[in-house]
Every structure is written in structure tokens, then in C-alpha cells.
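Please, structure for the following, as C-alpha cells.
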Amino acid sequence: MANVDLTQVGKNFVKSAETRESVELRSLWQDQPVVLFFLRRFGCQVCRWMASEISKLEPDLRASGVALVGIGPEEVGLKEFKESGFFKGFIYVDEQKKSYKDLGFKRYTALSVVPAALGKKVRDITSKASAEGIQGNFSGDLMQSGGMLIVAKGGEKVLLHFIQDSPGDHVPLEDISKSLGIAAKVTSGQRPVCNDDVCTR
């Protein structure tokens, strides 16, 4: 887990999808622990499946006083994402992508994005998503990767910092619960296993 400068990251502004108000990121963990899920794109099929998976934890997180927040790098696809109900937490947009950069979430190149998107992890998740009726599109910034940041109340410490390598990489629900020290009633499906050269860990 790379070092995270919460003071620096916390100064970045994100815009609420509900109120349209811009707030400092640190305000999201000021009064409670927070799970920050950084999506690659709102239209990304894999991201939508991950959002629906993480949302299974929302009742347990809420009962434990933990906020669940999804952050996207742009507004493209936001309306459809919200209306489709993929995510049960609060949604924000980091249009400057400053938090993505500060947290080490890489950008793909035109040459690296195609093999990454065709890797086994991604194929496994798109199959699961399709089986659950979750579709996606190719609108927006295809090059941005995402990840997760879990912060203790008041920014006391980073509980988990996860950086995607492959677009199919995600944090199992059990690991999210464990990092927060809470017991969850749900578990994630089988984690995709990478058997090709593209998505090494």
C-alpha cells in the first residue's frame, strides 16, 4: 500500500451529484469513516458491476456509521448511472481528476488500454455483469483507472488504499469489511483470477 498524504488529498474538491456543491474531499471523512470508491467511468460496465457489488455492503456500513461514496472522473454518463441505481452511496465528481492523480490511479495509453480491457479479469466481470443485466458503453474518458480509499473518522489514518492494475481489479467485500473492523452479512462472488500476461499483479 503506497503512502497517502491525506492532508494533500483532502484539499482536493469534488462536486456532489445531488446538490452540485463542491466540497473538499476531507469533509467526507471529517465526521465518520468513509469508503471512497473511485470509478474509471460512469458508463463502464465493469465499474457498474463493481458499484452494485460494493452497494451490497451499504446497509452494514450505514449501521456502523460508515459513509459509502462513489467518485467519478467526469460527468459523462452520470445521469444514466444515477437513474439506473447501480450505486447505493453518495456520488461525487472529481472533474480535475486531482484526487485520482494524488492517489496514484494511473492513466492508460492508447497502446495499453486495449490489452488491459481484454484481460481475463475484465472478461470474467463483464460475463457476470451481463448475466445480471448490467450493460455499459464507451462514452467518456477510456484511459483513466480507479481504485479505493478507506479513511478513518477525522482522517486519523488510511485503513485501505487500493490501486487498480487491470480494469478488472477490485477489492473483495470481505476486505472492505475487515479494514473497517465490521461484520458484514454479505460476501462478494468469486474474485476473478488472472491467467494471462496482461493483468499481472
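The chain has one domain: 6-172. The chain is about 30% helix and 15% strand.
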